[in-house]
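Bug #77: duplicate submission created two jobs. Keeping one. Sequence:
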Amino acid sequence: LCHTLDKTVPLILKEAGAEIVISPGLSRKKRLVLLPGILAICKEIKCYQPDIVISIFFWTDFLTSLCKFMFCRKFVLATPHLIHIGGDPIPFGKSKMANKIYELVNRFSFNSCDKLICICEHDAKISIERYHLEPEKVHVTPIGIETTNATSKKTLHDHFTFGVVSRISLEKNIDVIIKCFLQVVNICQHQLKLYIYGDG
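Kept job's structure:
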């Protein structure tokens, strides 16, 4: 049972042969709702009795964690709850109060779940330190390019092109990519190009 508000995740799961259930309680008129969301999650756990509940979004992490302390404890507690984060959890909003609330909600969710799944060691380390998690609770499932079969390129052709496909936002560190690329240009002394694709 996977809870997410990302529209692309259900499509990927459906292509992999999963049965998709759209939860009516997790959103209403594009606004997230607290109690209906909790009730919907509990109802689904009762109905489908899944082996694992996975949440992939800040709000669904929180709602599923709240289920353990409010309704249907025997159903929810018996079902492992995994939280999957796709990057360093950077706070929403710019105010100190918004950041504080974000930190508290994440701390509650991450400490309540059975396992936190990160996509790299960097994010795992940050989560362990920031939210005081036991290292055994955090699991890394790496994503990206398989490099074991890659061979080093001894000759560099002119107009060698690098590409980045990413959401252009603060946590993606596009500025670091540009600075690194400048160093590569200075070292190689070749005609290089860097293309950045993404919205933001």
